Task: structure prediction
Amino acid sequence: MNNLLKFLVVISVLFSLLTTAASPKDQILTTTGAEVFFGNDIKWKSSGKAASVTDNGEATFQIKINGFKYSSITFYKKGIIRFYAGHDPMTQFGDTPAVIKLPEVTESKLTSSKKDFVISDGEKSVVFDKKSGDMTVFKNGKRLFVIPGGKLNFTSDGFLKMTIDFEKNALFYGLGEKTGGLTKNGHTYKMWNTDAYGYHPKTDPLYESIPFFISSNASEFTGFFLNNSYETFFDMAKSDPESAVIGAAGGDLDLFIFTGDNPADIVTGYTFLTGTHTLPPLWALGYQQCKFSYYPDSKVVEIADSFRKRKIPADVIYLDIDFMEKYQIFTHSKVNFPDPAGLMKKLHDSGFKVITIIDPGVKVDDKTDIYREGKEKGFFLKTPDGKESKGSVWPGVCVFPDFSRQDVVEWWGGLYKGLISFGIDGFWNDMNEPAVFNKSKTIALDTIHYDNGKKTGHLKNHNTYGFYMIKATYEGLEKLRSDNRNFILSRAGFAGVQRYGAVWTGDNTANWDHLRMNVTMGLNMGISGIAF
Result:
């Protein structure tokens, strides 16, 4: 029997190795990813030189580049240039929900010589060298960066990669919620929203994906936003100290470039595109007390009273998953919280606002109204064969609303009515990467999302799932409680999440590394447009 068990263990290990090493793309989706993406396993093809550049008359210049069906340069006001290289025609705001508006285009012109193509609006210039294939960007005659000829790469199965060369000693900031120091030099990063409880200084990826960074070199500053929701990758001067390499496991290279006199100009341009925070309620700026987990209701009152007796200022207390009945969303535990309205009044009387948690997973249970209604209306994500996409989370086997559908957004937003009637003041969207208790930590990658009618897979929609959930919460609260400033907190997000609420640095723990990391993480999130 022992020999048989050993044999089965060896076979299972070999099978695991064979299946996980089947292709570079599979490796990217089952490992940290960045090392594989920037390694030697992927067979990259070079785009070559710009064969031609033509003016379409609307400040957008079409570029003929090998390997890309559609490529263009567009000049906007506010110091913004858009470089697009993809397989589908460029849409106004791109293929993610991040960008909500664009500045007016600027008057620009194209000139051509034996040496190069030059596109310029008088302040900014993009020069394509006909011999080397280099694409160089200038501001007021000063070189900002170069995309070297042959360093715009692609693969037959949809990977994209771009190298950007900078002047010596350039520093990089941003990329949203990432561990490490304030500057991001010398590291690779991956954008793939991930439940990373108890993360450490080298953990990557984390809960949010903000593919935006700022380069600083002497007195020159440039911003870069890769408007792509697939798994994306950033080599920040690790492979080459004078280069950044950015790439994606699908989609298009929709790159917004921001110029300005200082970092504030860059962030202003980025948030013009992706939006700014709504004004939060005043109480949300105070100290907020949260722990996993306070129950029963008497314990919550004890904690609140203790703050007051010790004269420790506090404005908010949180109710985690134990507030719910067997962890089922939009419910309350009849045992631990039999009188939620009475508890809210007691806490309000002592000066506390109350925030409770909502996860996206809906327990598969025909006895519950929320599952039954969502199932009847077809509101849950499905696999390619039309079955519900399922995953195990806190309440057990769950399904997940398709927040990329507006009718689902409206339905979900209305579900907050009962909790609001108890007097709950704000809401905390958690587990919305979406997180699932399995090896991949998320739902099946072939899950189909409505995605504005395009019906695309989870590879494209994973990083925007939490974004759409907080949007649904925001729109629901705006209808149910339109006379209030509403407070929403989200664990997961994508570029532009700041339009709908606040975020936090995920499931950290009480240690000095996390206290130290929260300083640089908070600063880089602020640089990345998330001020709260």
In short: The radius of gyration is 25 Å. The first strand starts at residue 45 and ends at 46. The CA atoms of residues 405 and 450 lie 6 Å apart. The longest helix spans residues 458-480.
